[in-house]
Each structure stands twice: as structure tokens, then as C-alpha cells.
Amino acid sequence: LDRQAYFWNIANWDALDKRATSDVFRCGGHAWRILLRPFGSSHKGVLSFFLE
């Protein structure tokens, strides 16, 4: 098993809009990015996190 890590520093968390996307990174031979919805997709108080 090949282990890799990606660190994404999100500055000004309180100022985020409805969504934030990371830069594209490579892991496991694939290109990925993270889609973050700090207020959830449809509910307040929920964090939604997607790997694209």
C-alpha cells in the first residue's frame, strides 16, 4: 500500500463562500481535487467534503 498525503490550508474559514475547491493534486496515479461545502449541500451546521 502506497501512502500519500495532501495538505490544504484553508485561510479565513469564516469568510468562505458556499464552496471551495483545492488545487489539483496527484495521488495513486490519478489527478484529484477536493470540493468543500462548509455549510453542507442542503443543511446548515454540516460540512460536505467531496473527492473529485
TrEMBL record:
InterPro entries: MATH/TRAF_dom (IPR002083), TRAF-like (IPR008974). SUPFAM superfamilies: TRAF domain-like. Residues 3-52 form the MATH domain. This is MATH domain-containing protein.
